[in-house]
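Methods — Computational structure assignment.
A single polypeptide chain was analysed. Its primary sequence is given first, followed by the predicted tertiary structure written as structure tokens.
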Amino acid sequence: MRYFLGADLGGTKTHLMIADETGRAVGFGESGPGNHENVGFEGMYSALSDALGDALKSARLEKRDISGAGFGIAGYDWLSEKPKMTEVIDRLGLNAPYEMMNDATPGLVAGAEEGWGVVIISGTGCNARGWDKGHKREGRVTGYGVLMGEAAGSSELVTRAMQMVSFEWTRRGPKTALSELFMEVVGAKSLEDLLEIYTQSPVRIGAEFAPRVFQVARQGDAVAVDLVRWAGSELGEMANGIIRQLEFEALKFDVVLAGGMFDGGPLLIDPMRETIQRVAPDTRLVRLTIPPVIGAVLVGMEKGNAEDGREIRKMLSESLKALM
């Protein structure tokens, strides 16, 4: 029996999974954040090493038993970082072929029916990646959010909502129930008081209030509705850039949606679908419902020349649930 490893290194936690060639999860490990931008390369190694040790112990395996590995790494944005990433992974002592990728890509491999297409991530921030059918060509955005004009995660949504509140006060825009919402949030006595508190004090109105913005939109507030539609269109345009990079316009493929913003439902997803399908009419939007680490394992199986298929994916998902 051959065994394969997948790791998902995020900004808050690291997941590492080991599965056999039938897709049965046999080991799982969890540790702290692995994004080198936050914890450094030594912290990245520690997170990987700790999770690997736990996974191998639970699987009753040794490093030499691993036949292929996939690593989805938050903060892996540029090829110039590859030598340092390689150095960290090589320190693990695995004698197996492996693939490194940005941590958005495993979600695509896990969520798309055929393991390729485009993934859009919208949580606190946002990101998007694409992979062709042969996993040879990659499409991407920068991953640097509003700095590079890429929106919208929940933090950008709330920031823009506060801008709309400011527009009401300066008469640049119409009245909105968002003003009442945020006045309540900070205990402001008036709209002017709200803006003074927001700009002059350490009181924070952040990403955690995005669900409240969606709630105001569902109640019919025109400004909030337009705001959510703006977010959906922005996310769709991020996908369209990748579709053009990879020349997917005439192809039939999945666009995988990952992250809590998509809990907003049709108000966000419908304008995103409209935006994408103007460029690629045969796309299918699907929610990611399984842990991204499964996609990393599938990449590890690919590197180890193991067979992939729908039954393997199903087994990985079901057996990981039982193991966790």
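Note: The mean pLDDT is 95.
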